[in-house]
Design brief:
Layout: E1 25-26, H1 38-48, H2 60-70, E2 77-80, H3 83-94, E3 100-105, H4 110-117, E4 121-126, H5 135-141, E5 146-152, H6 164-171, E6 179-183, H7 198-202, E7 208-213, E8 226-229, H8 232-240, H9 249-259, H10 262-285, E9 297-300, H11 306-315, E10 318-319, E11 321-323, E12 327-331, H12 335-346
Parallel strand pairs: 1-10, 3-4, 3-5, 5-6, 6-7
Antiparallel strand pairs: 2-8, 7-8, 9-12, 11-12
Amino acid sequence: MSVRVRADLDSLPAYVAGRTVPGSTKLASNEVSRGPLPSVVEAITHAAHEVHRYPDMAATELVDALAERLDVPTERLAVGCGSVALCQQIVQAMCAPGEEVVFPWRSFEAYPILTKVAGAEEVRVPLTADNALDLDALAAAITESTRVVFVCTPNNPTGTALREEELVAFLERVPSDVLVVLDEAYREFVDDPQAPDGVELTRRWDNVVSLRTFSKAYGLAGLRVGYAVAPPQVAEALRKVYIPFSVNAVAQAAAVASLGAREELAQRCAEVVAERKRVRDRLLELGYRVPPTQANFVWLPLGQRTQAFNEHCLENRVVVRAFTGDGARVTVGTPPENDALLEAAASFAG
């Protein structure tokens, strides 16, 4: 007799990471191309000399720095190995087997995986025809078995973002015993003044969590550190299911230093936003359909043409993230990287 693995894992969808192809321009994983903020590199180097010591499991310095920056008490903060780990911690902490997790689809592809691993039931709610979140449908999908609703804004992979007015109207419809998780991994790239600030909404609702990460705008994707702003009892539950020491010491030091590099971050995000507009405008000129985006990527809803576009880009040494049958997500990189993408897009005849 061989060891027995959970039979339901056979149907578990695989998380597909963006490909790295040597010699090609990688625009597949929503990474910033310029690396960590310049002043943060020194903190990373210094912390590397102490990796023979275990990290502070409570991430005390980081939590204190976040509390000061966000003006929230430390008991409302929890950290994790990237915001994706916090998504997993939320489902583990909130859902018993058979209870429901509601999320838009297509959205962050980890949601169905994390739900199934926890033994919960997924409820996918289709996007609108404009590739945006359908809040009316999300509200209608909530049942007595629902424990968590993920709301990704800006949405990954479509880039569309909610307005505060519509999100507030949605929150007013959600039962108070259902946790709404605002996944704001791309919040730093948002320039729409009408977009919601999830941290502010956590001050008004006792069933709202804001998730953010240092992976995207801060350029720390390889170090894996994110955080949640949550009601105290939820933050405490997240800490209970946290894998000990999973936010390493280098990540903690880099995150603290990143919080102190506000001017560098603002300049970086402004550059990305400017390139985002240039890339989208040119793609629209070329005849592509490109939804408005508030993230550091654009979405091309190519449908059945997606795989052909992906192969064409690879032939032109540009790597994008293809979601076969739906569309392609393309990271906004440096101007030369974006030019390579635009040249490939201009020559695509599929």
